[in-house]
Amino acid sequence: MMRKMLIVDHSRCTGCGLCELVCSVNKGGAANPAAARITVVKWEPICVDTPMVCQQCDTAPCATVCPVQALSRDEELGRVTINYERCIGCRFCIAVCPFGAMGFDPVTRKVIKCDLCDGDPVCVKFCEPRAIQYVDASAANAAKSRQAAEKLADLMKRVAVATSA
Amino acid sequence: MRDQKIAYIDLSTGEVRTGLIPEKMRRMYLGGRGIDVYLLYNHVPPGCDPLGEANVLTVSAGLLGGTPAPSSGRCHLGAKSPLTGLIGSSNMGGFFAPELRFAGFDHLVITGAAEKPVYLWIRDGDIRILDASHLWGKDTSETPAAIRTELGDEDVKVACIGVAGEKLVRFANVLTGLKNSAGRTGMGCVMGSKKLKAIAVRGTQSLPVSKPQEAFDYLKRFTDMIQDHPIFKVFSKRGTLMFQDDSDMIGRVRNRNFQFNQVPDGRSLYSENTERFSLGMAACFGCPIHCRHRYVVPEGPGRGTYVEGPEWSTLGALAAEVDCRRMEAALVGNYLVNKYGLDSLEAGSMISWAMELYEKGIIDDKTTDGLKLEWGSEAAVYEMIRRIAEREGLGDILAEGPLRAIEKLGEESRYYNIHVKGMSSLHTDERPTPPMALGIATSTRGADHLRSRPGVDANLLPPDVRDKLFGFATPNIDTYEGGGKLIWWHELMYVISDALGTCKFHPLFMSPSTLTFEDYANLAGWIAGLELSSEEMVDIAERIYTLERMFNNREGATRADDTLPERFFVEPTPLGLGSFQGATIDRQKFEDMLDEYYQAHGWDKEGVPTVETLARLGLDKEPSRII
Questions:
Q1: Does the N terminus or the C terminus of chain B have fewer Cβ atoms within 10 A?
Q2: Which domains does chain B have, with CATH numbers?
Q3: In the structure, what pLDDT confidence band is assigned to residue B441 with cuts at 50, 70 and 90?
Q4: Given an 8 Å threshold on Cβ–Cβ distance, is A47 in contact with B178?
Q5: A30, A122, A128 member nearest B209 (Cβ)
């Protein structure tokens, strides 16, 4: 049963790409955002940055199309993992991933994806604006719903003030 | 350390040659601004015309650029400056330098001039010179968009010039992203003179990290420190604009050019006003500080455009100095200078100078072609920005920078221009703070704070903590004695930051929790595998700064150039709290401070490095042409 999941709040992202950098160093021992398991997609003209990372889908298209069953779900950590002993490097998984989260390391020439750092994601540790968080699956929507509720509560207060005056 | 390359690109012949950087050079100069000044001293022919083919443009990534060193996204540009005739040296944030490193290059040495407009396309070890005729005339946001489309890659990082660079405005900037720019000393003008519209770069190669765990542990401590630090808590939300609040309150900003040191009813320019327009904060490469705003231009020219900024310096130059007291003036002005590709500090300073000349009757409607250059006129400021960039009328004169514009507008105008070595001073008033005044006087690139400004909170620390931090007795910021050594120390500290390619916002906030020479030495070891002691770091910094001095001396600079605008000595500050009011710079005490400063560097009374200093730093055989 999966306990925690990686969630991304795009509105908090400052676009620094430290997640990409530390991911690449952690996985490959060298700095290279192109080899990271997470990608910050930038729309420079409209000031938007969006970190894109594997969603660890329940019904994962990458696993479905893999001709050699190299991709499988790990229910303990709630992730999809690659068995490199089976992987033949056909890159079908890259073609079908709806998020572009299946990557290809240009240096090692292997398919790569986020493995949640075995339950302790490095990107989360270094994300100062907390755009990427690793939270209990049951609480994935908690922050967002509290945020919305606060707005409502604020509104209610103003209504109360207006009617009492 | 992987074999990062240096590329020599001759735009006259189209020849491209690459080479490696020997470890010996790394141990002497690190990278970034360090290797950069070595290249300038060795490749720029003495006395050359800054706008001629012989001038050299250098683009440098720091030794730690693009790595887990904190905020390692800085890029350094150099050339002989068309503004000052001395060393051109400018630094920008963003993502350009890391991308250059991922593409395999640390340094570019660009010589000659193309016949037709070109841009460079650098991709994973490969460099091409491509036609840019269709890009000539485009602004600084249209240019990268067009390049990305034609190269078919949205992740290409671009550094480019705007119309101001094409028209050889002597303070044109080089811009990357929406606002990160190498503004000072006219590097965009040099690019324009070489018909080089842009440099596009994309890299997917790896930079080895010698000791990843140590680097990570340090980065983690640093990031945690940022989150808890009282200054960064505000800085990360309001950016450099936060300095307007306390600086205006005590009286150390420029208003109406240099007539007042506070903005009347200046609260409308305080950083609290950012809350009305900020869409959130943006960061440079790998930086947890994220100090710049994202916003939509709220009105006027460019209304509805998404942009980033403004920095405090831009607010100072385009609002406080010209006495425009609405935050919106800074937002629109920031958009305009970036669109055209102008240094905001220089543009604002030149416009506020012209406004004072207009007020005093030294220039009139005839010179301005009818434009009412009145204090607080936002429309006049916007129009002057455009005229400078397009080189129209008075704009064409101001586009020449202080030295040449003074000659054109006459001797009467000289006193009102606030410049050092031909570069306009920034938006602060240094009369109440003698060491800071010394810093803008000695800066190798002309009046500027980013060469040596002592940290903001250092002054609030108890003297014993401060002395421990610097390693010697330090003065209060409103006194002279010890000021020379204080500035010397900060010059060296900032050099190291620029040579490593990290951001000066770490040492700038000199407090017991930010980076020291020892931290920098450790980072060089953990990441680049370059084992150095903190003493060796100080020597490297001294070598780099002294070589910059040698470049300037070779171009004819002397002690007489390490001075301040006359107004600093004769006009007391009219406003401000406590010692900030009624302050002037005392000539004799200033000269004494300068002596102390030269002595700290190991230079003689004329500001010439002594024979012993040259030998100690290994500079006695320069130019040595190793790279």
A1: N
A2: 5-202 (3.60.9.10), 231-424 (1.10.569.10), 434-617 (1.10.599.10)
A3: very high
A4: yes
A5: A30
Q: Which helix (H) or strand (E) holds B57?
A: strand B57-61
Q: Which two tokens stand for residue B315?
A: 């607010």
The reply to whether A72 falls in a domain is yes
DSSP string, B417-485: --EETTEE--SB--TT-HHHHHHHHH-TTSS-STTTPPPTTGGGS-HHHHHHHHTS----TT--TTHHH
How many angstroms separate the CA atoms of B498 and B513, rounded? 20
Given an 8 Å threshold on Cβ–Cβ distance, is B219 in contact with A22?
yes
A164 found inside a domain? no
Complex ipTM > 0.85: yes
pLDDT at B459 over 80: no
Taking CB atoms and an 8 Å limit, are B306 and A21 in contact across chains?
A: no
Amino acid at B52: G
Q: Looking at the domain assignment, is residue A45 inside a domain?
A: yes
Over residues B13-56, the pLDDT tens digits come to 999 999 999 999 999 999 999 999 999 999 999 999 999 999 99
Task: Name the minimum distance, in Å, from the CA of A143 to any CA of chain B.
Answer: 18
Give tens-digit pLDDT for B368-395: 999 999 999 999 999 999 999 999 999 9
Give me chain B's average pLDDT, please. 95
CB contact under 8 A, B280 and A106: no
**Number of domains chain A is built from:** 1
Sign of CA dihedral A108, A114, A120, A121: positive
Kindly report each contact of residues A48-52 with a partner whose C-beta sits within 8 Å and lies 24 or more positions away, as own/partner: A48/A10, A49/A10, A49/A13, A49/A14, A49/A15, A49/B282, A50/A8, A50/A10, A50/A13, A51/A8, A51/A10, A51/A13, A51/A19, A51/A131, A51/A132, A52/A99, A52/A100, A52/A101
Closest partner residue to B208 (CB to CB) among A30, A45, A47 is A30
Asked if B202 contacts B153 with a C-beta cutoff of 8 angstroms, the reply is yes
pLDDT tens for residues B119-152? Answer: 999 999 999 999 999 999 999 999 999 999 999 9
Q: Check CB contact under 8 Å for B178 and A11.
A: no
B225 chain-A contacts, CB cut-off 8 A: none
Task: Indicate the helix (H) or strand (E) that contains B495.
Answer: helix B483-500
How large a percentage of chain B has pLDDT more than 90?
A: 90
Residues of B with CB under 8 A from a CB of A: 66-68, 95, 102, 141, 144-145, 154-155, 177-178, 203-209, 212, 215-216, 219-220, 223, 226-227, 236, 279-288, 290, 294, 306-308
Q: Cβ of A44 and B284 within 8 Å?
A: no
Q: How confident is the model at residue B458 (pLDDT cuts 50, 70, 90)?
A: low
Tally C-beta pairs within 8 A across A and B.
101
Q: Closest Cα of chain A to B224: distance in Å?
A: 8
pLDDT at B477: 85
Q: Which domain holds residue A80?
A: 4-138
CATH of residue A116: 3.30.70.20
B120 residue type, one letter: L
- Is A153 part of any domain? no
Q: Are A47 and B286 in contact (CB < 8 Å)? A: no
Tally of CB atoms within 10 A around B469: 18
d(CA A2, CA A8): 18
B102 → closest Cβ in A34, A44, A46 = A34
| Cβ-defined contact of B290 to A107 (cutoff 8 Å) | no
B275 or B259, which is more confident?
Answer: B259
Q: Are A9 and A143 in contact (CB under 8 A)?
A: yes
Cα distances from B385 to residues B155, B178, B241, B254, B335, in angstroms, run 31, 18, 21, 19, 11
